[in-house]
Specification:
The protein has helices at 15-26, 40-57, 63-71, 96-109, 125-129, 163-175, 191-194, 196-207, 213-222, 229-236, 238-251, 262-269, 312-320, 352-359, 388-397, 413-429, 435-445, 452-459, 461-475, 484-488, and strands at 8-11, 31-34, 73-75, 87-90, 115-118, 138-143, 152-157, 179-184, 304-308, 325-329, 336-339, 342-346, 363-367, 377-384, 401-404. It is of the alpha/beta class.
Amino acid sequence: MTTSKQDILLIGVGVMGQGIAQVAAQAGHRVFLFDTFEGAAVKAREKIAATFTRLIEKARLTQQDADATLARLVPIQTLAEGKTALLAIEAVIERLDVKHSLFQQLEDLLPEGAILATNTSSISVTAIGAGLKRPERLVGMHFFNPAPLMKLVEVVHGLRTDKGVASEVEALSRAWGKTPVHTRSTPGFIVNRIARPYYAEALMLLQEQALAPEALDALLRAAGFRMGPCELMDLIGLDTNYAVTKTVFEANFQDRRFTPSLVQRELVEGGLFGRKNGRGFYTYPEGAPALAPCPATPPAAGSQLVVHGSGAVADALAAAAKGFTVSRVPTSNWAGLQIGSLQLRQTDGRAAWQVARAEGLAQLAVFDELPAVAGGAIAFATAGSAQAAAVAGVLQALGWQPVAMQDAPGLVVARTLAMLVNEAADAVQQGVCSPEGADAAMKLGVNYPAGPFEWLKRLGRTRAIALIEALDACYRGERYRVSPWLQRATGA
């Protein structure tokens, strides 16, 4: 199947189904399009044709290739018309009973050696295959939206999936120009599991009223993410994101790490789903409001600035301190800077008030991870008599956009990265994927600027654990437990 252009049966022609069909047809396969809604298959082909017209206008596709691809897309009215297919891919509603029933029909219809593939994003492949005559022929083939553009395909093994079948799907995915990553059939697979903290930490901070959605989004974009968590949830659909979170939570026997958010539930119950109906965290088409400037008092020209600590952060602070008289104290056990009696320390996970109280400091602020984007936003919080305007003035003078927030452990970016690393470490611990697979999946499936294990190298194991333990010390409970894999990993 992987070397020839066998027929493919595509069931369910919504946005995802259309994308998969386009990918397969462009790779040279005849694709039968089927949907239970009358006329949907024909309309799907028409929508793909309209996409091709736009691509031709942009000189990204030739008319000849478009015509040849469209000729290979064949709408059918009954499943029986697709009985020659040696691969069936379903992209129907995310309901176990519907998928199970469909595959029972396909087993009776298709040749005995046909591969049955599900595009489910969260339902157990093992559960879908339960009761099938040939469960070893069932495999997950999870694409990401938009399928023609996104490179990742999660190849998902159920307990009874034959290794040869998974290998065939892997080879086929590569032939289609995709990057397959193998994963066990566990709740959320790789991407939807590891990505949970990206939303969960933002929602926790919103529940605590630590800062506004537009500030959260600006801070994580400055860290290199293409979209912030709130605008991304609005794009996905708050109802869809909430449903996936609930599915992962329930499938993990209500593990508190995956607890859904009251903030998100309220929005969904209020019918605020995001872009799809015009209002979520933001109102559309306007989208997120501009980030309000933080009141800032510039430091006096030529002020003495002391950079504490050694390593990348201290070096970056010293390099950014143009216009200051700079000295360094590399032996300090904290990274940051001092101007007069005011200390600005990079967060170690503790809230500013905790550090100030533990060390008897009157004027202290903590700041987040340094922005990856030039001039990007950076969060800070103050404790004691430290003035937010003075802290903002220093950060602004260093070339960043300061964002004052309520004092919260781990601030925004640091806690988010640490929890993404922790979740990925647990996925590896449980045999869901390899570290390399996790990195590839997160970069290719959701366009993260780095993979979780690449972030681990950047943060360092000691710092990542310290951030998570500080969160656990503040909140208590299962949510912020350190992964056993991370605890025993080697390196700094």
